[in-house]
Amino acid sequence: MTILIFLFILGSGCGGDSPQPDSAETTSRIPLDSLRQLYRQYRLMRTDTLPARQVQERQKLYPVDEASMDTAFFVFREQLLQAVQERDVFALLDAVDKDIKVSGATEPGVAGLVSHYGLTPTVADSLPIWPILEELLKAGGAFSNNGRVFTAPYYAATWPEELSKNEYAAITGSGVRIRSEPRLNSDIVNTVSYELVQYLETTDQTEVIGGETHPWSRIELSGRKVGFVYGKFVARPTGYRAQFEKTGPQQWAMTQLIHGE
Asked: Would you say which domain of life the source belongs to (predicted)?
């Protein structure tokens, strides 16, 4: 761990006299007109925009991304995504609340995030946190608590209360093929779009499709039809998820990076 990160953690965890940078400092210093201009620029740059309103349909969970409803949060998230893609450890830490909750961490707050994910600039390119955050930041989400909290991904933020988070999963694509065996060349038993399905297990069998490697999951459709779906297109609400909270006017910070229950 570099001296700079050590000093950051020390300063965040201690109540010294030296002022610490506010969370989401990058957006809080931007004048409102400039913030709006950045918002428009980022909106134009996004080619994979999810709908801002979620379609409601029985036994389905459609994608939604409400981030655009809050200008400051949208800019904050896009800047955080840019930092993640650039593997910028210090920009990531600047966007994190000092008391962030991190699953699996043995220390509280930022210190736990740093130690659990090995956040050192010397090995920044290979840190496991980058693909986790990039996927979360692109997976939509929804606001709660009167717009003061944003949860990602969308299937965790909008999961139906009546369905068990441990027993069900969401199909995250349109026209996803359900196969008879956990391999690409097996028979297609059904084709579904954004279905809520019963999750049975994640198999040990993985496959490379389109340059990506994922395991196959065994699921059960309505009508008790059982099949296998490629892991890229099935998600569980107990997987990785991030929570962001409004910490002041035009200020946001990541307050949770959790998985499991």
From this structure: Bacteria
Sheet containing 176-179, strands listed edge to edge, beginning at the edge strand earlier in sequence: 188-192, 176-179, 226-230, 212-220, 196-209, 168-171, 234-235
Residue 42 to residue 204: CA distance in whole angstroms: 39
Location of each CATH 2.30.30.40 domain in the chain: 168-235
Q: Is it the case that residue 248 has pLDDT exceeding 50?
A: yes
Q: Are strands 96-102 and 251-258 parallel, antiparallel or unpaired?
A: parallel
Q: What is the pLDDT of residues 45-78, one digit of tens each?
A: 888 889 999 999 999 999 999 999 999 999 999 9
Q: Cβ neighbours of residue 19 under 8 Å, at least 6 residues apart? A: none
H/E stretch holding 102? strand 96-102
Backbone torsions φ then ψ of 222, nearest 5 degrees: -60, 145
Only one residue has tokens 């093929």, namely 177
Positive or negative: CA dihedral 232, 233, 235, 240: positive
* Radius of gyration over every alpha carbon of the chain, rounded to an integer in angstroms: 20
Fold type of domain 168-235: SH3 type barrels. (2.30.30)
